[in-house]
Specification:
4 copies of one chain form a homotetramer.
Chain A: E1 3-10, H1 22-25, E2 31-35, H2 43-55, E3 59-63, H3 81-101, E4 106-109, H4 113-121, H5 123-136, E5 141-145, H6 152-159, E6 163-169, E7 173-174, E8 180-181, H7 191-204, E9 206-208, E10 214-216, E11 221-224, H8 231-244, E12 248-249, H9 256-264
Parallel strand pairs in A: 1-2, 1-11, 1-12, 2-3, 3-4, 5-6, 6-11
Antiparallel strand pairs in A: 7-8, 9-10
Chain lengths: 265, 265, 265, 265
């Protein structure tokens, strides 16, 4: 592995309500997934988050969600494919205009919460979402938990020319099928385990499941949860481990590893 | 006058609630001001309205409003300049992404309701709004009721390189200062008066006020209210009068009349 | 049958958007199901609807929905039982306070759209909803499409002492299981069929399904859809048929038919 | 002074966003002003807050605000008197139903933020708000910063039979006219000054302004700001001072001091 990306959800405050620790986390990220007002975020929060990202040279992607502020976009809603398309286009388009106003470009799209879960399962919704991503991203990139194969949106995205960036989670456990085991409550994560999982991933491109199996993890980005109680410590640990292993850090590139090799030769 | 634009607010439905007669009006317009979801409109309505506009070769501008669905954006709210900026950028940006997905461009910005009224009065809000228009419009155009001079946003817009398209209203009366007299209730408008006012405007570039004064009306667009009971009849009358007077019809151009002269010579 | 109730959803306008024909329909109803602001309606619309209901001596029930204005409460959302409870209590409580301010009482609760469908299926949500109905209704009544037996909320409601008022729909078809066949588009309903279905119901307490079976319809109320193109004609037909058959018209009573018999003896 | 009330705004979280420290503050209050969903709060937060209040025997009042979640109800909006009336009735009614479901009663109404400011200034809005309070409160009480005389809502409230509970603020400064000097940023408040101001108030019924004048403070309740960084310390200081001065603590009573004297004789 020559270079790895570190991404985190950002801009999840809303109006007077604060969430996350964007100011301390952003300087240590390479890409930020910014909420766009449907499940979190608002125009002021988006502008502020973009400003911080620019200051710290962090690439910004859209983090669109379901229109459910009350439920933080975490409750499945029965939406039609045309709605999935227009909701993503609307949210990512609003963010893109703000980025362009600051001389930045929309880097990627990463669906949030229940919208993510629905796009993982439903191929009609996924086709509509892929269409929106192709339309709104200058060089279409999709972030998705690795392993991405066999899931609705990553599969259709690949067929539409969208590059899919697999993500590895160092602050969560995996089951034997490579599925993330979500915590009920946000508790402080054991930093030794974060270190061990990341070292294994760097050395082997795989992680150990909770039941001991080795799970291949074709990932180009490390995803950090910004809302845990020790998110900053996790992020610092990740940066330390990467430095110790001489792993370069950088935002995922649209042309992909192949593209970079081609360019280098 | 070689050519005139005809604009109308469109896309003001929301979810299951219908408003306006976009399907019958759009074929007769040259530009449409499309609501962007804060005071009216939603992503599905926006996509549908853009589709109709494309079918009828109508240029589409953003019609941003205050975040007040309940009050249809008609109630003044005490917002800060940074909020005026980010609210316009967000709404126009969302619409722009949808237009670009259909191979169209964002044509202009026209603020709605109480936001319009606030931007007419307050120069700090106006400066923030002008900034958003410059940032989001590829070739910045602002639509505003004529006479525009002496009003906050048109004045600052002109100084920022935004071309201001003055509008004449043929379905409303003017007072001696050239101010529109708003109807309390939407009533059917007398078509003979529409015809007379438009003929006077074509012949002289001015209209008569309710008290008989002649008011100069430096306008390049005719604005039609889509929500009146006989909006379609008014629009047909306008098209008839323009045809009788050999007036060309076309969306206002970003380069302006001077630009067109220069191009022609 | 000594007396029958006629109910209709009312107060479904929102802000500047009109829906339904409350002013013409309300004089012909005995009970109105009033939207409470989550999927439709707003405080001003609610006050106006209550005023009309009072003028025409129409009993008012709450018509609570999911928090989804954009989807008109017609999209299923994954909510928890505690949310079903607090959402119904909030909405019905707001309406109740408005009714009490006018010297009226909250008559019943009738869930709307996707919330209705979810409460038909899910017994945990249904138990939570029944709790809210018992808490907010002075004399708890629930309106539900007949036949109600075997459906989650009506079953638990009966066990909680809530009287369940079965509804017959004269403007929709039934399948052989007594399930309503929903129209895709709101089209004008054939008045002869309305008349025939209602006459059959009055004579036999049952209706014919689309495939010819006789379906028992233990109903005390006729539900009219206020948003169809000929809703007023349907309602007038219903009133005519009831008059021709000497059927008394009146809001369903909390004490029920048994109660009325007891009171009469 | 025989007894004093201590109130604080509570239930200002929304969905996944936390605000305030209700769990630690509520045990030390006698009355809580609970947000009702328009500017903050939601049905789940309201139920949780009521549950805490019941556990600690705290009386609960409604804290209605403008329909502006994005602005936390702190931005003036141009609303009509009928809207002020229906918005307060809706919000307080929803809370009242939840209280009654727990065997509690709605204790008082205290308008929030910009709605408070508008009701302080505009007598037409104030008359509409007073009407709502009379309609929704079993024994109408209004909380308002002392001195209340000469302000729109307290004046009309008194004439409508609503008892007005004046509040003294021990964590803010006063100008010579008895007007509160609002902090730009929430900073930790000097506890010595809190102690000194409260001791002066207990001894004399007045406080010193920032310019040294003595300002009479006809107050029956101490209002604490729950969102400051040392809110809990301020509240503990208040309780300590009141204990040292043998001042009884209790929720303001609807019958008022006169009523209590009458009852005692």
């Amino acid at each position: 592995m020559r270079s790895i990306d570190i991404n985190c959800d950002c801009g999840e405050s809303f109006g007077n309500w604060q969430m996350g620790a964007d100011e301390s986390l952003l300087p240590l990220l390479t890409t930020a997934n910014v909420a766009c007002g449907f499940h979190a975020g608002d125009p002021q929060v988006m502008m502020r988050t973009i400003g911080l990202a620019q200051e710290h040279r962090v690439a910004v992607g859209a983090h669109p969600g379901l229109p459910d502020l009350l439920g933080f976009g975490r409750r499945r809603m029965q939406i039609a494919p045309a709605e999935a398309h227009s909701y993503i286009l609307y949210q990512a388009g609003a963010l893109k205009a703000m980025l362009e106003a600051r001389g930045m470009a929309l880097h990627h799209v990463k669906p949030h919460g229940a919208l993510y879960a629905m796009l993982n399962d439903d191929s009609e919704l996924a086709a509509a979402a892929a269409q929106a991503i192709v339309e709104v991203c200058p060089r279409p990139l999709l972030y998705w938990p690795a392993p991405t194969k066999g899931n609705a949106l990553p599969d259709v995205a690949a067929s539409r020319g969208i590059r899919v960036i697999g993500e590895v989670y160092v602050d969560l456990d995996y089951d034997r099928h490579g599925r993330l085991i979500l915590q009920r409550r946000k508790e402080a994560v054991d930093l030794t385990r974060v270190r061990r999982r990341l070292e294994e991933f760097i050395a082997t491109g795989s992680v150990a499941s909770v039941t001991g199996e080795t799970v291949a993890m074709p990932a180009e980005s490390i995803c950090i949860h910004g809302d845990g109680p020790n998110a900053l410590d996790i992020l610092k640990t990740v940066r330390d481990v990467l430095a110790e292993h001489q792993t370069e850090i950088g935002a995922a590139a649209a042309e992909g590893p192949a593209g970079r090799r081609a360019a280098a030769s």
